[in-house]
Predict the structure.
Amino acid sequence: MAGVCLAGVIGFAFAHADARDKTTVARRPAPTRPVARQDDALKPHAWRIVARKYSYSVPRIEVQQDDLVKITLETADIPHSFTIDEPYRIAKRATPGHPVVFEFRADKAGAFDFYCNLKADDGCRTMKGKLIVKAKQ
Ligand SMILES: [Cu+2]
């Protein structure tokens, strides 16, 4: 309750400052929301994906546009890759016991297929997932 009352008093004070002197408005503390969003963009959104028996443990990755995406790809059986064609142009390969870690900025909005581009085993052609990058508001 005290918080609500305080906000009311501050709001009242600002309203009066606005009316009196326009320069006071510029000194108003910046809203905290955009700052939090910026911090969010700096820290990567991490995903651990295990490829096994021709599928990915995470078949759908959903992020916000401009998010920094960090992916750790592991394989539990044979070599597999995480590949996205245009516009991201990613092709990262993991072998058993040797995960691959990579990051990219999801700066293009849309829905993109990821798949395994390795040709040694026919089953790899069935490995599919989706990267969803939601457009900024
Ligand atoms: Cu594969």
